[in-house]
């Protein structure tokens, strides 16, 4: 996803083989990450926008969240990702056992995540569920598309939080039940409300309304791998 992607299978909020992040030079922000939680076996950090979660294949895309974190926590590993242009909470295991356990929680879809997004237009329904399958767009690799013929099931719950009539923009909370690549971007686009700053899928005028993708992973909830305690963290959207 670019991420996270919005994206959550165990390896990524935007699990991809070839992503725009691999093929394009993406300057890394100087804004630091923030530790939301730390213990002996895992971290939860708040990733800034305009920073890859893992190194890209392009030689100039080596500065990333995990390498910055590993300067202080050398054994930190990645179990899921956020897109380069998405900000928000990321779990980073510090042991192999915890990496395996958190990965299984993602696979079982017991990790709960909420995103905040600013989208174009007024979302008509206060809440709803989008169920539209997503597939790789073979004619426009490495992008993705809604495809009922070859797509994998993808489900997103949404809730309208507010509407600004002056800007004709809506603030929404998004809960990805599945974790397909670019799921939140594509589902909101299909609903008729592209995310502001989305340079991959939105029209040029909507993409130009923000210098960043207006998507933030605000909330994450999971079970501690060692004691089973429910952990929940929230980081307000910076927009």
From TrEMBL:
Pfam families: PseudoU_synth_2. Residues 42-189 form the Pseudouridine synthase RsuA/RluA-like domain. Signal peptide: none annotated. The keyword tRNA processing applies. The keyword Isomerase applies. It comes from the Bacteria. Belongs to the pseudouridine synthase RluA family. This is Pseudouridine synthase. It comes from Rheinheimera baltica. The lineage of its organism: Bacteria, Pseudomonadati, Pseudomonadota, Gammaproteobacteria, Chromatiales.
């Amino acid at each position: 996803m670019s991420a996270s992607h919005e994206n959550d299978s165990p390896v990524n909020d935007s699990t991809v083989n070839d992503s725009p992040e691999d093929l394009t030079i993406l300057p890394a922000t100087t804004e630091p990450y923030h530790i939301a939680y730390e213990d002996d076996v895992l971290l939860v950090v708040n990733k800034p926008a305009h920073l890859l979660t893992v190194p890209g294949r392009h030689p100039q895309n080596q500065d990333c969240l995990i390498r910055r974190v590993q300067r202080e926590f050398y054994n930190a590993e990645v179990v899921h990702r956020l897109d380069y242009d998405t900000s928000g909470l990321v779990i980073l295991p510090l042991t192999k056992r915890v990496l395996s356990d958190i990965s299984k929680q993602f696979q079982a879809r017991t990790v709960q995540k909420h995103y905040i997004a600013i989208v174009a237009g007024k979302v008509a329904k206060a809440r709803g569920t989008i169920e539209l399958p997503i597939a790789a767009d073979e004619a426009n690799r490495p992008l993705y598309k809604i495809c009922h013929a070859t797509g994998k099931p993808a489900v997103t719950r949404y809730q309208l939080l507010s509407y600004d009539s002056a800007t004709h923009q809506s603030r929404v909370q998004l809960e990805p039940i599945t974790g397909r690549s670019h799921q939140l971007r594509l589902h909101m686009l299909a609903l008729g409300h592209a995310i502001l700053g989305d340079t991959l899928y939105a029209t040029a005028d909507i993409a130009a309304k923000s210098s960043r993708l207006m998507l933030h992973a605000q909330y994450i909830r999971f079970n501690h791998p060692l004691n089973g305690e429910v952990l929940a963290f929230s980081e307000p959207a910076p927009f």
